[in-house]
C-alpha cells in the first residue's frame, strides 16, 4: 500500500469513528436536602458514576464538567434544575457534553427520597420522560436500585413510553374476583395490541411499598406522584358502576319445560390519565348486556354464577374497552401498524388502467389509409382497444 492510499484509509477510519462516536454524558454533583450528610452525597455521586455502563455514552469527568459550568457562570449543581432562558443559552455553549445527569436526595422521616433526571445540555431542558424516583430506607438500598434506574434513564426513548393499569374503582356490590379479573384481562389485551405496560404485579408492589395501594379517584397532583413512582407515561383506571348477573326463571306452557336463564350487565368507563400532569386525557365508556343463551349449552352446562360473571368481563374488554383505548388520541400515535396495513402497501410496478372515456362521447371518424394493416391499427385505437396486431394478420 503506497503512502497516498494509507492516508486515504486513515481518513476513512477517522470519519467512521466520528460518525459513530458515543454521546458524552456528565454526572452533576447530587443536590442534598433535608439534612442528608455531605459524606452520603459524595458516596452517592461515586455510585452513580461507577454504575453507568452503556456503550451509547462516554462519561465526562467531574473536573471537566465543573470547569465547563464555571466558565458559563453556573457554580452549583442545583442551578441546573431550574434554568432561565439566559442560562439555557449559556449551557448550550458547553462543548462536548450532550446530556447531564442531575439528581437530588432528600430525607423524609427515616427514609430517603431520590430523584434522577436527564438534562439535554444542548437545550437546557429536562427530559420529563426520563425521570427516576426511588424511596428507600438507606443509602445501601439506594445503591441496589441505581443500576436498574439508570438503565431506564439511559435507554432508548421508545422503551420509556409505558403505561400502568391502576386498581379499578368499584362503586357497586361485586364479587371479589371482579377487580383482578378485569385488570388481568385488560393487561393481556393491551399487550396483544403491542402496547407497553408496567407489569401489574410491579405496580401493586411499588404502590403498596409507598402506602398508595388504595387509589380511589385521586386529585391530579396525586396521580402525577403515582406516575413518577411507577415511571410511566400514562395511567389507566377503570370505574365500574354496574356489575350483575340476573337469574331469570322461565316456564314454557306448551311443553311444561321450566328453568333459569342468565343475563349479564356491566357498565363503567376507563380513564386515561397523564402521568406527568395527572389530568384526564380521555375516557372510554363501556356498557354491555350479554344474554348467555347464545353460548352453547354444552359449554355452560356446569357453569356457576361466577363463571357467567367472568365471561362477561372477557366479552366487554375486547369488544368495547380495547377499541376505545386504541382510538383515543392518547394512544392513537402508539398503535403499531396492522398486518392489513402492511399488506396494502402500493406496488411501484402496479399499472394504472387507462381512464375511461365518458359515455356517449363522440369518437372522431376513422379515415381509410388504403393500407389494410394500418387501417386495422387505426380502427382499434379509435375503439379504445389495444392498438397492436399480429404480424401474420397484416396483408399487403
Walk me through this protein's architecture.
With about 400 residues, the protein is of the alpha/beta class. The chain folds into two domains: about 5-160, Rossmann fold; about 165-335, ABC-type transport auxiliary lipoprotein component (Rossmann fold, 3-Layer(aba) Sandwich), CATH 3.40.50. The chain has helices at about 5-20, 40-50, 60-70, 85-90, 140-155, 180-190, 200-210, 220-230, 295-300, 305-325, 330, 340-345, 370-380; strands at about 25, 30-35, 55-60, 100-110, 110-120, 125-135, 165, 170, 235-250, 260-275, 280-290. Strands 1, 2, 3, 4, 5 and 6 form a six-stranded mixed β-sheet that branches. Strand 9 and strand 10 (about 260-275) form a beta hairpin. Helix 6 (about 180-190) crosses helix 10.
Element layout with pairings:
Layout: H1 3-19, E1 23-27, E2 31-33, H2 38-51, E3 57-60, H3 62-71, H4 85-91, E4 99-108, E5 111-120, E6 125-136, H5 139-153, E7 163-165, E8 169-170, H6 178-192, H7 200-209, H8 220-230, E9 234-251, E10 258-274, E11 280-291, H9 297-300, H10 305-327, H11 329-332, H12 339-343, H13 372-382
Parallel strand pairs: 1-3, 1-4, 2-4, 7-9, 8-9
Antiparallel strand pairs: 4-5, 5-6, 9-10, 10-11
Helix pairs in contact: 2-5, 6-10
Amino acid at each position: 500500500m503506497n503512502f497516498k492510499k494509507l492516508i486515504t484509509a486513515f481518513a476513512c477510519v477517522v470519519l467512521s469513528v466520528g460518525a459513530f462516536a458515543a454521546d458524552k454524558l456528565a454526572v452533576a454533583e447530587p443536590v442534598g436536602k433535608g439534612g442528608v450528610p455531605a459524606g452520603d452525597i459524595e458516596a452517592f455521586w461515586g455510585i452513580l458514576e461507577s454504575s453507568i455502563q452503556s456503550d451509547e455514552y462516554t462519561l465526562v469527568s467531574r473536573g471537566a464538567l465543573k470547569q465547563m459550568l464555571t466558565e458559563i457562570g453556573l457554580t452549583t449543581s442545583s442551578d441546573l434544575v431550574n434554568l432561565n432562558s439566559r442560562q439555557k443559552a449559556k449551557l448550550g455553549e458547553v462543548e462536548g457534553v450532550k446530556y447531564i445527569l442531575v439528581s437530588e436526595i432528600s430525607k423524609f422521616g427515616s427514609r430517603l427520597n431520590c430523584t434522577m433526571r436527564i438534562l439535554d445540555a444542548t437545550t437546557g431542558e429536562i427530559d420529563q420522560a426520563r425521570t427516576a424516583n426511588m424511596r428507600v430506607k438507606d443509602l445501601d438500598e439506594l445503591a441496589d436500585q441505581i443500576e436498574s434506574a439508570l438503565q431506564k434513564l439511559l435507554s432508548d426513548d421508545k422503551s420509556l413510553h409505558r403505561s400502568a393499569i391502576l386498581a379499578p374503582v368499584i362503586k357497586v356490590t361485586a364479587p371479589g374476583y371482579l377487580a383482578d379479573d378485569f385488570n388481568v384481562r385488560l393487561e393481556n389485551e393491551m399487550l396483544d395490541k403491542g402496547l407497553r405496560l408496567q407489569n401489574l404485579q410491579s405496580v401493586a408492589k411499588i404502590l403498596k411499598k409507598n402506602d398508595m395501594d388504595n387509589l380511589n379517584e385521586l386529585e391530579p397532583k396525586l396521580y402525577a406522584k403515582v406516575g413518577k413512582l411507577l415511571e410511566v407515561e400514562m395511567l389507566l383506571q377503570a370505574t365500574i358502576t354496574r356489575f350483575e348477573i340476573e337469574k331469570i326463571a322461565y316456564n314454557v306452557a306448551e311443553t311444561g319445560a321450566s328453568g333459569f336463564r342468565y343475563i349479564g350487565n356491566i357498565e363503567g368507563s376507563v380513564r386515561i390519565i397523564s402521568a406527568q400532569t395527572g389530568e384526564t386525557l380521555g375516557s372510554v365508556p363501556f356498557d354491555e348486556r350479554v344474554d348467555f343463551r347464545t353460548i352453547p349449552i354444552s359449554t355452560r352446562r356446569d357453569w356457576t354464577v361466577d363463571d357467567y360473571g367472568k365471561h362477561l368481563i372477557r366479552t366487554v374488554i375486547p369488544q368495547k374497552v380495547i377499541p376505545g383505548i386504541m382510538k383515543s388520541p392518547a394512544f392513537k400515535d402508539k398503535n403499531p401498524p396492522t398486518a392489513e396495513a402492511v399488506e396494502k402497501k402500493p406496488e411501484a410496478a402496479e399499472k394504472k388502467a387507462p381512464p375511461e372515456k365518458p359515455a356517449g362521447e363522440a369518437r372522431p371518424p376513422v379515415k381509410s389509409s388504403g393500407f389494410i394493416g394500418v387501417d386495422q391499427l387505426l380502427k382499434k385505437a379509435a375503439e379504445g382497444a389495444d392498438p397492436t396486431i399480429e404480424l401474420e394478420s397484416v396483408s399487403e
